[in-house]
Each structure stands twice: as C-alpha cells, then as structure tokens.
Fold this sequence. Notes:
- Chain B: This is Dihydroorotate dehydrogenase.
- Chain B: It comes from Ruegeria pomeroyi (strain ATCC 700808 / DSM 15171 / DSS-3).
- The complex is a heterodimer of chains A (200) and B (122).
- By secondary structure, chain A is an all-alpha fold.
- Chain A is built from eight helices and no strands.
- Chain B is mainly alpha-helical.
- Among the domains of chain B are: 57-86, no CATH class; 88-122, no CATH class.
- Chain B has helices spanning 3-19, 26-44, 50-64, 67-86, 95-102, 105-108, 114-121.
Amino acid sequence: MDGRASTDGPAQAAGPADEALLALFAQGDPRAARLLTERLGPRAFSVALRVLGNRAEAEDVAQEAMLRLWRTAPDWQAGRARVSTWLYRVVLNLCLDRKRRAKAVDLDAVPEPPDTAPPALEVLQQAARVDALQAALMHLPDRQRQAVVLRHIEELSNPEIAEIMGIGVEAVESLTARGKRALAGHLAGQRAALGYEDER
Amino acid sequence: MKMSDDMSDLDRMLHAARAGRDDLPEALAQRMLADAAGVQASLARPAARPAAVAQDAWRGLLAALGGWRGMGGLATACAAGVWIGVAPPEFLPDPAQLVLGLESETETLGFYDLADFISEEG
C-alpha cells in the first residue's frame, strides 16, 4: 500500500483531504475507510515500529491508533488539527504507554522478513543496515528517538513534530541534532560489517 | 574515521529505512478495515439518546393514567381539592374541630388549643 499518495497539508496531491474522508467515514462511506487506511495505516505502523522496535507490538499500536481514529470520526472538529498530526500523537502516546508497562525491550523481535528465497547480497546488506539502525535507535532516550524517527524517517517538518510532541520547535531541533549525533556514535564501529568500507 | 563519514553512513541508513516506511502488512490492513466496518455499523444504529428515553418514560406514565382524558380528570380533581382546602364550602365540617376531636389528649398536656388560634385569626 502506498501511504504517501495523498495526505493533509502541503503534500496533498490527489484525492480528498483526510479530514473530508473522515467526515465521509462518519457518514458510513466504506471507501473512505479504505482510503484512510491506505494513507494513514502505513504511517502509524512505521512510526510505531521504529519507536518500539518490535513488530508485533507496533502492529497492535497501529491498529489501536486507527481504531481511535474511527471512533473519533463522528466528533471530529474541522480545523482542529491535521488528521495525520492527531494520529502521530496517538501513536506516540500508545508507544510510551507500552514502554512504561514493559521496560525491557526485545531487540530480537525487530524486522524479520518471512522470505524463504535466498535474497541477493544487496538486499541482505540493506536489511542489515536497517536492523543496525533500529538497534541504534533503541539506545536513544524515548524523546530523542521519537524526534529522529519523525524528522528523518517520516520526513515531517520541525513545526509539525513540535505540534505532535507538544514541545517547541527549538526543542525539536535540539532533540534531532543530539539524537543524530548519538546514532552516528553507536554505528561508528560497524562500518565494515555493514559494507560501508567497500563502497568508498 | 571522521565524524562526517559516520554522518554520511547514517544518512544512507536513514534513507534505507525510509524505503520501507510505506509497507503495511496486509493482515494488519484487513484488521484495521474490519475495525472500521464495526465502528461504521455501530454508528448506523445509534444507542437510544437520554432525551428519547425520558420521552418514552413520560409516554408510559401517561398511558398508565388513562391517556390525556385520564390526565384531564386527575388535574381537575387536584385543582378542586386545592380550592376546597383554601375556601371550604359552608356545608363541610370545620377541619379544626375534626382535628380537636381526634387530638383531645393535647389538652391534658397543657398545650394551647388549635381552635383558639384559628378563631383569633379568623
């Protein structure tokens, strides 16, 4: 599913806005549910996966966040907030709740594609790099990890991240800068293992 | 190793992570859609609103009292009772005397007679 085709905000390219779809959903239009799932479902899952580092938990969080969106549809106030912003905020809150409940993080449960065919070396290397990045992300404090994921993986603007996290734009800049430096530090010793030495 | 190399490697890793961000497991998408269908079904048959419930209760009470005709009779009887209490007709016995007859023990306790108060005021 392509979750980036059309979302609220500047990236809105084709199709009705998320807010309009939400209104249609509340009126019982099943196509609105499908379109919103295609647009927002991948975002909810992606952020939850990067923040939690656990695929099963990320699926639960993404499903719960979308369920809350469905339930809030009849009471949605137009212009209150962007739907995607609201959803990111719900996802992050659900992630925080889970992390508070279970302090121990299961790093072994990070992405394992159920592919039986022997993948090409390039694909393996790419997967190893994403896994290494995820492991490094899990070493960051929660707020730094959230900011880095929203900025550098979800590619949101700093003002939008500030709105989602309930902090100022300068605080977002500080969190992402410190987070990125810490990530680079964690990954510094793995250049050869991840194939970066060969590419230079 | 330079910090700029580390940052460059990190940027490439973030780029690789971005490549997979649009993947939504099909089973998860189906669960989300099933939830959506459930919520839409519940929205289609809204629960009874409190106002409607109260209206139903009043209708039930009205029916139990014999409908609007019964309610009219009840209202008339209430109004007549109030009026008789305020301005009793001549042929009705004095309620104060009735009370005195029933509460004769009060004299033995040395309390004032209720009829005295009424006669003084009247």
